Automatic annotation (TrEMBL):
The gene is map_4. It comes from Curtobacterium herbarum. A divalent metal cation 2 binds at D111, H175, E208, E239. Substrate binds at H83, H182. Binds 2 divalent metal cations per subunit. Has a high-affinity and a low affinity metal-binding site. The true nature of the physiological cofactor is under debate. The enzyme is active with cobalt, zinc, manganese or divalent iron ions. Most likely, methionine aminopeptidases function as mononuclear Fe(2+)-metalloproteases under physiological conditions, and the catalytically relevant metal-binding site has been assigned to the histidine-containing high-affinity site. HAMAP family: MetAP_1. Residues 13-246 form the Peptidase M24 domain. This is Methionine aminopeptidase. The lineage of its organism: Bacteria, Bacillati, Actinomycetota, Actinomycetes, Micrococcales. Its EC number is 3.4.11.18.
């Protein structure tokens, strides 16, 4: 299903996006050396509940997971990159942490992910990974406008990732979003320009470039959820929910007080 929002529905999607961004911003500030991943999940649950929203992950049970997920946020550390199941692990200085959050608020979903380094350490490899996914995300957003094709977005994202020297995995990528978290169309992190679905105003997309340093192969943890790099290398993941408008793309998952692109 591809869902197109009306002008009267879009403000509710904006509110969901702001909530997701505000929660991620708060959790980033609390994720210090010594913080337990289970505390991050608990704090996310408290903020979601206080806003009258629901997490998209608690009952999430797709065919590839060992569901239901049972937690409120994905927490991936170092070589973990996607669907990181919160568990009893304490963060250390220099860890590369990815937080991925999706909620439904007032009937609409928003989805965003941030990767950052815990503590004052700044390992060069981790900094480069994070900056590359952020630049790829920005390139995908810049390519999003009415009449553009999905392949244009995928090509823009993939060009940044490949020029930085990272292998690209095409198993998981971006997706449509609306009243539910995962909808058509799929947005691959590489592709051919001019191909695929033509974007229309009112379409919401979650764009999410992610990379691993030296492999495009994933392995699954015994928990049945957490996906890691097959070589144990570090990973990073950046994601925004955007709305296609008459003028281009509006980023919905920005914290309160930010100016949408």
């Amino acid at each position: 299903m591809i869902e197109i929002l009306t002008a009267t529905e879009l403000p509710r999607a904006r509110a969901a996006g702001t909530l997701v961004a505000d929660i991620l911003h708060t959790l980033r500030g609390r994720a210090t050396a010594g913080t337990n991943l289970l505390d991050l999940d608990r704090w996310a649950a408290e903020m979601i509940r206080a806003a009258g929203a629901t997490s998209c992950y608690v009952d999430y049970a797709p065919s590839f997971g060992r569901g239901p997920f049972g937690h409120h946020i994905c927490t991936a550390v170092n070589d973990a990159v996607l669907h990181g199941l919160p568990h009893d692990r304490v963060l250390a200085d220099g860890d590369l942490l990815t937080l991925d959050l999706a909620v439904v608020h007032h009937g609409y979903a928003a989805d965003s992910a941030i990767s950052f380094i815990v503590g004052p350490s700044r390992p060069a490899e981790s900094v480069a990974l994070i900056e590359t996914t952020e630049r790829a995300l920005a390139a995908g957003i810049a390519a999003a406008r009415p009449g553009a094709r999905l392949g244009d977005l995928s090509h823009a994202i993939g060009t940044v990732l490949s020029e930085a020297g990272y292998p690209i995995n095409l198993e998981f990528g971006g997706h449509g979003i609306g009243s539910t978290m995962h909808q058509d169309p799929h947005v691959a992190n590489d592709g051919r320009p001019g191909r695929g679905y033509a974007l229309r105003p009112g379409l919401l997309l979650a764009l999410e470039p992610w990379v691993m340093v030296d492999t495009d192969e994933l392995v699954t943890d015994p928990d049945g959820w957490t996906l890691r790099s097959a070589t144990g290398c570090r990973t990073a993941h950046s994601e925004h929910t955007i709305a296609i408008t008459e003028d281009g793309a509006e980023v919905l998952t920005l914290p309160s007080g930010s100016v949408a692109g």
